[in-house]
UniProtKB/TrEMBL annotation:
PANTHER family: PEPTIDASE A2 DOMAIN-CONTAINING PROTEIN-RELATED, POL PROTEIN. PROSITE patterns: RT_POL (PS50878). It comes from Grus japonensis (Japanese crane). This is ribonuclease H. Its EC number is 3.1.26.4. Pfam families: RT_RNaseH_2, RVT_1.
Amino acid sequence: MDIANEFFSIPSAAECRPQFAFTWRGVQYTWNRLPQGWKHSPTICHGLIQTALEKGGAPEHLQYIDDIIVWGNKAEEVFKKGKRVIQILLKAGFAIKKSKVKGPAQEIQFLGIKWQDGRHHVPMDVVNKIAAMSPPAKKKETQAFLGLVGFWRMHIPGYSQLVRPLYRVTRKKNYFEYGLEQQQAFEHIKQEIARAVALGPVRTGPAVQNVLYTAAGEPGLTWNLWQKTSGETPCRPLGFWGRGYGGSEAHYTPTEKENLADNEGIRATSEVVGNHRKWKAAVWSPTRQVVEATEGEGKSSQFAEVKATQLALEIAE
């Protein structure tokens, strides 16, 4: 669903109106509503809509500024959730575009992403577009390719390691030398996009478990987040992340690298499921078995888990 004239539904504070003043035909005017084109308008709008939905007790949903999606196992459930969200928004002073209220449907496009069976997929037209791309012959072409596939990086395990040869030739200080290593990376990432896994959605509730796996290999750090509910097998992936080592990190001991991966993973994926959700974290080492930290909740326990993992690794050594 889509909110109509969302910016103009939000009054601007009296003390802020002078900064929006303008002159037209010799007469000075100002905006008394949130103006379009102002760089902070989307952020303010998103926050106010989010607050209205939270205060109104909206059912589980995803929101990006004025676009909102709800889901369920049955059409009737989706209809009821959508109706409840609309009621909350109308009460908060927003208007809804009837033409932009779609569904219930088993498949829908939301923010350019294909949603099917409760998960978001890489759309087939994107897969076909990437598959049809020719090997880049210039830095700008390489950057364009990386920009396109990079939008879907959360769907691809080990993405940062896969594209490293391509990023290397885009650096300003480097000449563009497209060799065998770059071609292999180019073909590999196209194959991974074609078989990219579906992700999400993020679920809430006491029965939901968040499972984070982290690893520290030779190329860099990786972490991936999964969710499961009681009686559900297997876990559902929420995303895959990773990065290379920076500065002195490459010279860390194996234990320090694994601890860094755990810490980084918990910090990053907290933004996906929230800072007050229950966690179960694990570190993977090729030379050891998985060492699992104690479960916890909130930011304080996240760091406690990192310390517990470090202690467990030291005991294992």
